[in-house]
């Protein structure tokens, strides 16, 4: 059975992402794992709390997540499991992802702010570093059946085999129509990406020039896409200083959920 992981910090955006993930799990007939990484607040850790108090806090967190999971399972008629971790968010999430051999991780994306523009947030940081697909859900987005997928890509690139396989699985599992939106001038005739969808489901468009992010936002609206898919590029530290991740920008500005499929191991 396909498994989706929804990470939440119990915030409005985090819990809204859980509800979106539940709707997606119902569409895919998948199982859902609710994940929360628990960190003792700084003020509490500074007081040198006894071990039994820390254990009690952890147990309360497990019970809170379990109650949330029962409500989601009843509402969406899906199988829901829980994972509560204590420690570094990324490390613990990586471990849970491997444990369930999950298809993707779903996280909420808060609204745009100055701090987010300058430093990003947990979701954009995960997109930039995770070796698995990450679905970011815009602030306040409600689930609707995914029938149209917009895949914004550079068709002059040759994506790795595992990336192509991940994209192919998305197309097959959703049974959605796909538009490939080429953000470069090169023609895609020889590219393997054209094999990711049946001819009857495939559209193709090319955009030239600058303002790529603006063009993608416009195409989302004009095409009526329910899901945006992008493949981020991985940069070294110094490359990241001069390159701005368009996938990260779209994650923070998109009006529809963005599925980021990494092209690295």
TrEMBL record:
In Swiss-Prot or TrEMBL terms, this protein is called Universal stress protein
Organism of origin: Pararcticibacter amylolyticus
What sequence ranges are listed for the domain UspA? 2-138
Superkingdom of source: Bacteria
**The family this protein is said to belong to:** Belongs to the universal stress protein A family.
User: What InterPro entries does this protein's entry cite?
Assistant: Universal_stress_UspA, UspA
